[in-house]
Amino acid sequence: MLDIMYRIKIGTMTTELPILSPLSQVLRFVPKSILPTVLHSNDTGIKETKASAASAKASDDTNTIFAGVAAEAEKGEKLDAEDVSSEAGVFTVAGTDTTAVTMTYLVWCVFLRPDLRKKIEAEVAVLSDDYTDVDLLDLPWLNGIIAETLRLYGPIASALPRVAPSEGTVLGNISIPGGTLISTQSYTIHRDPDLYPKPLE
């Protein structure tokens, strides 16, 4: 798991600062005894995700998210072995720390606001023992605190890069040439008082 964490950090750094990407590729060939494990973590991550993909393929359990990915790969139409391995890595990274960070902040925010805690407790108290995800959609206070936690304490700090179409585009009154890498910066947008009257609450 520590190796995966290093991999996430290197991946985030090279996404935010693409100039580091060639350097990280060169340093992969330096022996581990000379440089920290972080520089070789991508290789370990690839090996682990291939093992996860193979395990999912061999499993009889069809009730997992990854079972659908493996099933598509079996058809040979949309996903090859490399795609499946890549998806396994994404699920591993996106489904662990992101959830833990969000839940930690959510609990912290709720305990800072006793009034909010009482409202959420009252909402969930009426749920039956066999409630489903659909039942949770009707709980405005619970859904509100989840949305606000993600707004203020989003677990992914990196930007959301997109490439402008080849013919170029116009964003607002700015002309953007084709092939230009553009992105939004969620931290700033989520604290914009024009969008959120009390952005820090």
Please provide a brief summary of the model:
This protein is mainly α and 201 residues long. It has helices spanning 2-16, 21-27, 41-58, 65-75, 81-94, 97-112, 114-125, 133-136, 140-152, 186-189, and strands at 160-163, 169-171, 174-176, 181-184.
Structural class: mainly alpha
Runs in which pLDDT lies below 50 for 5 or more consecutive residues are 1-6
What is Rg? 21 Å
- With strands numbered from the N-terminus, the spatial order across the biggest sheet is 1-4
Beta-strand residue percentage: 5-15%
Largest sheet: 2 strands, antiparallel
- The average pLDDT is 76
Q: Tell me roughly what share of residues is in helical segments.
A: 55-70%
What is the oligomeric state here?
A: single chain
SSE string, helices as H and strands as E: HHHHHHHHHEEEEH
Distance N terminus to C terminus? 34 Å
